[in-house]
Amino acid sequence: MGFARACSVALVGVEGVVVEVQADLEPGVAAFTLVGLPDKSLTESRDRVRAAVVNSGAEWPQKKLTVGLSPASVPKGGSGFDLAVACAVLGASERVDARAIADLVLIGELGLDGRVRPVRGVLPAVLAAAEAGYRQVVVPEQTAGEAALVPGISVLGVRSLRQLIAVLNDEPVPAEEPPSDGPDPMLAGLMLPGTGVGTGLAAGPHGHPDLADVAGQHLARTALEIAAAGGHHLLLSGPPGAGKTMLAERLAGVLPPLTRRESLEVTAVHSVAGMLPPGQPLVRSAPYCAPHHSATMPALVGGGNGLPRPGAVSLAHRGVLFLDEAPEFTVKALDALRQPLESGHVVIARSGGVVRLPARFLMVLAANPCPCGRHSAQGGGCECPPAVIRRYQARLSGPLLDRVDLRVRVDPVHRADLMGQGGRGESSTTVADRVQQARRRAADRLCDTPWTVNSEIPGHELRTRWPIEPGALTGPERDMERGLLTARGLDRVLRVAWTVADLAGRDRPEPQDVDLALELRTGVPRGAAVPTGGGPR
């Protein structure tokens, strides 16, 4: 009778749970039983592991074999347990030293020929192992760079089970054939089909598009800069062809680079979702996610069969979520965004368990004024009935819009601006420098708090801990008394005013900063000066 154990990790959303893989051999009819709440793909690992062990030159034990996955109450799925199951079986049959694998965390899928194939979610799995106190992990060679991002972890990247057996037995490591010059079929499991441009990491080889390509639209450019500096959500409304999509596509290019902690968070989400490009183990820039308006509620907030998977709000974590043609989304899907907009995460309950996914993103909505898009446009010739226009605009509910700090009307571009007669606008690099300076001012002010940008500060804290110029809130208070502004709206105006002051280099907001914030909130001109060359002054 033989017994051995190894460790692997089960992913629940983007969080991992260390699983002990136990193998027990007893005399009896040869059989392989796998217990511990495995799903279909994990149950099939019995055949993969048996073939991989035999083809790696080891003898398969002809005894009654039971493999248990503990804790048994945690649902387990995927092919990432193959390597741990194989090593536990080899340890129980004394092909390898059982003590050498007892404290190893092994993650990887096995091919029938014994090659170790990469799997998704290696980074969050290794993070979970590190938090549990483990210090040695074995992963496929292709994902060793991703696993090495976790500090304090010794990573061994292997190409085949044969190599791992040799390492564990202190034998000469056999040479494996390197990948051919063509596409590596071993990388096929890292990215899901259809997870390319526009679904998460949209920046191409030339980076994000330049803001200087946008002609005119001075107020919208100012709102874009304020949104990036303070993390404020933005609504762009206007007729087709005015430049709403161009502006939104350039927002991610003016956001500051991700910090080390933020990079790990974003990389973990994209690794689980199968969207981490091979050869790019760490995401360093803000992601940009633009789902189609036919996206369902699970596609936006996360879901699917069994345990939920990350949706668009999680793929846009620490970046930009752009909803073009926002009124064309289903009302149910749009209203599902209200909770993550406030909390920065989404909690999804399913019969298989409850998953908490990160979702702190900057939302940009783009909307036409009516179904034909020509309502209120000069010479537009809109023929939509008033009831149709009201119904179309009501698809963006009041509670959702109340969480949007900036609402800007994007009018058609003038001929002079389009032909360059009004001068070329500032580049993304210039605007990004001002945004980083504003964020540094906010970070210095918030250094002893759990918040990093103005949009995260609770209203009570903002009103009591950081007072503004006396009398600066006269306009917002008057609108609140008239019912034109809610209590949440007043707090959001105050947050935007602080961001305007940070961009202008002021220690606290002045009346003109509040006026600009209120104008961007309500769309009603307040006499605030909007510069033509850049951000607030």
From TrEMBL:
GO molecular function: ATP binding; DNA binding
Pfam family, one: Mg_chelatase_C
Signal peptide: none
Source domain of life: Bacteria
The keyword ATP-binding is assigned to this record: yes
Record-linked InterPro entries: AAA+_ATPase, CHLI-like, MCM_dom, Mg_chelat-rel, Mg_chelat-rel_C, Mg_chelatse_chII-like_cat_dom, P-loop_NTPase, Ribosomal_Su5_D2-typ_SF
Entry-linked SUPFAM superfamilies: P-loop containing nucleoside triphosphate hydrolases, Ribosomal protein S5 domain 2-like
Record key words, sorted: ATP-binding, Nucleotide-binding
Domain MCM C-terminal AAA(+) ATPase: 311-406
Entry annotated with the keyword Metal-binding: no
Family: Belongs to the Mg-chelatase subunits D/I family. ComM subfamily.
Xref: PANTHER family: COMPETENCE PROTEIN COMM, MAGNESIUM-CHELATASE SUBUNIT CHLI
Protein name (Swiss-Prot/TrEMBL): YifB family Mg chelatase-like AAA ATPase
